[in-house]
Amino acid sequence: MPSQAFVEALNEQIGNEFAASQQYVACAVYFESETLSRLAGFFYAQSVEERNHAMMMVQYLLDADAGAIIPAIDAPQVRFEDIVEPVQLALEQEKRVSEQINRLAALAREEGDYASEQFLQWFIKEQVEEVSSMNDLLTIVRRAAADPLRAEEWLAREGSAGEAADPTAPPAAGGAL
Fold first, then answer.
1. Rounded to the nearest 5 degrees, what angle is found at the Cα of 94, between the Cα atoms of 52 and 145?
2. pLDDT tens digits for 19-45?
3. Whole-angstrom Cα distance, residue 32 to residue 49?
4. CA distances in angstroms from 65 to 3, 43, 60, 120, 173, listed in the order given
């Protein structure tokens, strides 16, 4: 069973993942309001992914017979000046989540909790991909700030719509609905 310190930290991370999910919904809604459906779709998909990360953590705690707690979260930022601002916010968020996951892995190692450390390896790999993806998108929206349809075209051409589920991902509570 994971240490109490790890369980508390992972429950906090569950809140961080749900907050990230809500922030991505807010970004998607902004892009929808700007009639930028590809950017909106990208962020709606990111929201589902972050929600599923939280549910994977919930499932891990349930499987470990530890207390899973769904914490309250703060409201997301909903107003943006331009198409660059939500993507910049998302990149900062992904970098912050990467740091949080790394701290969780360090805590698990510190506590001698090798099962929890192993569980977090997938998230570490995932965060490298998330930061890279958001960094690429930020580069594109900066270039396309004066003509947002160029960002839409890039997503249509380069986007990862229909990407297959990662078979190495941990199971999510609720079956990753």
1. 115
2. 999 999 999 999 999 999 999 999 999
3. 19
4. 11, 33, 9, 17, 14
3-state secondary structure 70-91: CCCCCCCCCCCCCCHHHHHHHH
* Sign of the CA dihedral running 176, 72, 18, 80: positive
Looking at CATH, the fold of the domain delimited by 4-171 is given as Ferritin (1.20.1260)
61-114 tens-digit pLDDT: 999 999 899 999 999 999 999 999 999 999 999 999 999 999 999 999 999 999
Residue 112 identity: G
User: Which letter does DSSP use for residue 161 in this model?
Assistant: T
Burial level of 149, CB count in 10 A (0-12/13-18/19+)?
A: exposed
**Residues 6+ positions from 139 with CB-CB distance below 8 Å:** none
Which residues are within 8 A (CB) of 108 and not within 5 positions of it... i.e. 6 or more apart?
Answer: 2, 6, 114, 116, 117, 119, 120
Domain boundaries, the chain: 4-171
Q: Are 86 and 30 in contact (CB under 8 A)?
A: yes
